[in-house]
Specification:
heterodimer, A: about 350 residues, alpha+beta, Rossmann fold, 11-stranded mixed β-sheet, about 25% strand, disordered N terminus, B: about 425 residues, mainly alpha, 18 helices, about 70% helix, elongated
């Protein structure tokens, strides 16, 4: 008993200076939480920190102690701070614009930026500058080329890695066939295919996705209940992304079907990784997808094939002629025997 | 023969190393004796086999040095104590392995790949499921390695020194192995894994509640060359692909639910919790309208189909009824006829049978008097064709006849001579007074 009290005193002392620096409203909360903590065994303390504090802080703002200037009022507890800068290039078409809007609604911890005109240094420089200005630690940039192809850049500013994807098969939330709906700001459950634990580049991408697509806990715009699943699958060397709404099973039908059901919300798209860089928007290349055929090249190939038809036909005719000349029956000496 | 070859190879190895324990040598020699007693001797193929064995021994040695049997060393050590029991089993198991030269080489190569995978996965702390399955497959070779434990022990120190390099080379090799399945990826795997590790370390202390990520164990059944799972769904088969995605996501939800419960995070949203939704009410109304519309379409199609069927059936039934009715009427008439005949004969000879017959015919309504007169009259009046058909068609004279046209617009019809109300009343009055 005495030992426990001693622990309590120690911890209270360590916490108090931090608490005093923050607002007085929330001073009681840490002490309560510490009391709860002390009852738990030491081993689980770290693990449960988040759990215990979450229950009481779900509606409060998240505390944190990062070197960057915090956007919300911190409370002395470690919290995951993520801010994502979402922007696009000029020349973007309607579909891609809607996709970006949908991503903005799905990512409550985003900062919107107007259309970017890449300067003489290129996109990377511009993005890193703007991100530094807006104090964002991750970036999501949709680049549209020829008003046809969309490339999605994802990366962490500063030292973080960055990825370039080619986006295809886009279905936005506006489509009436995607009938689900979820709360704005609810934290999604991120579901990763088992390939994301095996392949090297996918492991890195998993971490990026968790940071960017996963809502940080306790974010002011985050809502408490779990409403949405964002699922990432790896198939055909591409990453397929789906969003589903979680519907609870009927309590009456609990015995029959314990599982609930999923309704697709959207957006849904397919990401084809092109390359992964060590730094943000550049740097040493960590991964390059040699199986990726740029859409320009594929279109060029198709046009070439069309042009080939005439040449192929002419060649075939030539060959036919040649074969006709070659295929001559040899003269049979016995032909003239019988008349 | 195989046994003999194996034992000779073992003996050669003992000579090379010179560190075989006496126990083992004795055992092999005893085994040799047994073998000699049992088998017949064919010298020439034996020599050839010896050569093959030499090559194999070299290959095995290299594999061991490269550290692909690391896992087995640990196992071998565990089994060291019970070696005596295992020796007989070893011989038998080795025989199975040795049957065909080519098969053996291929198997070794395949096992190499799998074993490299094993080592890599052991290091990167991946799912245990794969390891277990692959270990069971290699049970044969595990037991084979028991006899080479002392050699391995020696080599292990050597291996430890060069372990890091080999691991990385294995990594790169293994990436190629993996990537050969997926196509050629150009990966700088060292730097990639380093970066990944750095990212993971930043979030190392996070409890699951911060990350909210889940890895469902159900595999995606999309066609791969070497996957054993039965159903290979084509990636372009939309319906089945989405079903597979749905199943995996559902499993993920279950996992997340349990984890949230553990972490104390509320999962289900109560009905009275209102919050701004991602899609506006207008949008949802439009979605609802579309759903209703689609349902209506489906229903309309179903209705049309059923109507068609019903119409067909009702037509059938109706025609049946009519036929039935006609038959009954005919029967009735026949009965009446018969009765008439009978009645006439019963009444006696004075009566004129013909009169009765005529009277009865009348009663019957003259069925046999040909086609319906009414029908014929109507056809004549309203029908087309026939003698007078010509007179029912327009000719220029009749078309240009404007006698029926009255610009004043008293629409009384073509030949109507009926005056208006005023005129009629006036005439009536005049008639009354007059």
């Amino acid at each position: 008993m005495m030992g426990k009290n001693k622990k309590k005193d120690k911890q209270v002392k360590s916490k108090r200076p931090k608490a005093e620096t923050e607002e007085t409203e929330e001073e009681d909360v840490p002490s309560q939480e510490e009391a709860m903590k002390n009852e738990e065994p030491e081993e689980e303390e770290q693990a449960d920190e988040g759990a215990v504090s979450s229950e009481e802080e779900e509606e409060e703002e998240e505390p944190e102690s990062p070197p960057v200037v915090p956007s919300f009022i911190s409370d002395g507890k470690y919290r995951n701070k993520q801010r994502c800068l979402i922007s696009c290039s000029r020349g973007i078409t309607a579909r891609f614009r809607h996709l970006l809007e949908d991503l903005r609604t799905c990512i409550p911890h985003h900062k919107k930026e107007a259309k970017l005109d890449p300067g003489p240094d290129g996109i990377g420089r511009a993005m890193t500058d703007i991100a530094a200005m807006r104090e964002c630690n991750s970036v999501l940039f949709l680049e549209c080329r020829k008003r046809q192809d969309a490339y999605l850049w994802m990366g962490k500013t500063g030292t973080g890695p960055s990825v370039k994807f080619h986006v295809s098969n886009i279905h936005t939330m506006d489509e009436l066939k995607l009938t689900g709906n979820c709360m704005r700001g609810s934290r999604p459950v991120l579901s990763f295919d088992e390939s994301f634990t095996r392949l090297g580049h996918l492991k890195l991408l998993r971490e990026l996705f968790v940071d960017i697509f996963g809502t940080p806990r306790g974010h002011p715009k985050a809502k408490p209940f779990v409403d949405r699943v964002m699922a990432f699958y790896y198939a055909d060397k591409k990453i397929w992304v789906r969003n589903y709404q979680i519907t609870e099973p009927d309590p009456q039908q609990l015995k029959q079907d314990d599982k609930g059901s999923l309704v697709e919300i959207g957006p849904r798209f397919v990401l084809n990784p092109v390359c992964i860089f060590h730094g943000s928007f550049g740097g040493q290349s960590l991964f390059r997808n040699s199986a990726f055929v740029s859409p320009n090249n594929s279109r060029a190939e198709m046009r070439k094939l069309k042009g080939q038809s005439y040449v192929a036909r002419k060649e075939a005719q030539k060959k036919h002629k040649q074969r006709q000349e070659e295929m001559v029956l040899p003269e049979d000496p016995l032909d003239s025997v019988f008349r | 023969m195989a046994k003999k070859n194996k034992t000779s190879k073992a003996a050669k190895k003992a000579e090379k190393k010179g560190q075989r324990k006496e126990k083992e040598v004795k055992k092999t020699s005893s085994v040799l004796e047994e073998v000699e007693a049992m088998s017949s001797s064919d010298e020439e193929p034996l020599e050839q086999n010896n050569k093959n064995w030499n090559a194999k021994a070299k290959a095995l040695k290299e594999m061991i040095e490269s550290g692909s049997y690391d896992k087995l060393v640990a196992k071998g050590k565990a089994e060291k104590d019970s070696k005596d029991d295992n020796d007989d089993d070893d011989d038998e198991s080795i025989e199975e392995v040795v049957l065909d030269d080519e098969e053996d080489n291929q198997k070794n190569k395949g096992n190499n790949k799998r074993k490299r995978k094993n080592t890599k996965e052991a290091e990167t702390k991946d799912s245990d499921g794969q390891e277990h399955s692959e270990e069971s497959e290699q049970s044969d070779e595990e037991e084979m390695e028991d006899e080479e434990d002392p050699e391995e022990q020696q080599q292990k120190s050597k291996r430890d020194q060069t372990e890091e390099e080999e691991i990385e080379s294995e990594n790169s090799e293994e990436e190629e192995d993996n990537d050969d399945e997926h196509g050629v990826f150009d990966t700088n795997s060292k730097a990639l894994s380093a970066k990944t590790a750095q990212l993971q370390a930043e979030k190392g202390t996070f409890p699951w509640a911060e990350r909210f990520d889940v890895v469902p164990s159900e595999p995606l059944p999309f066609g791969k060359a070497d996957e054993d799972t039965g159903n290979k769904i084509d990636i372009h088969d939309d319906l089945n692909r989405e079903v597979a995605f749905y199943d995996v996501a559902l499993e993920a939800v279950q996992l997340a639910r349990t984890k949230c419960k553990q972490a104390g995070i509320p999962f289900a949203r109560p009905d009275d919790f209102f919050a701004e939704m991602v899609k506006t009410d207008d949008h949802m109304a439009r979605v609802k309208d579309r759903l209703i519309f689609e349902n209506k379409k489906i229903e309309a199609v179903a209705q049309r189909k059923s109507n068609k069927e019903q119409k067909l059936r009702s037509k059938e039934a109706h025609s049946n009824k009519i036929a039935e009715k006609a038959r009954r009427k005919k029967d009735n008439m026949n009965f009446v006829d018969d009765w008439a005949k009978g009645a006439a004969s019963n009444r006696g000879g004075k009566y004129n049978d013909q009169d009765d017959q005529v009277y009865l015919r009348k009663m019957q309504g003259r069925d046999n008097n040909g086609p319906n007169k009414k029908r014929m009259a109507a056809n004549k009046k309203y029908g087309f064709g026939g003698k007078r058909g010509r007179f029912k068609q327009n000719d220029p004279k009749s078309m240009n006849d404007m006698s029926g046209f009255n610009p004043k617009g008293n629409f009384g019809g073509m030949g109507s001579k009926r005056h208006g109300k005023r005129a009629r009343d006036a005439t009536r009055k005049r008639q009354k007074t007059s």
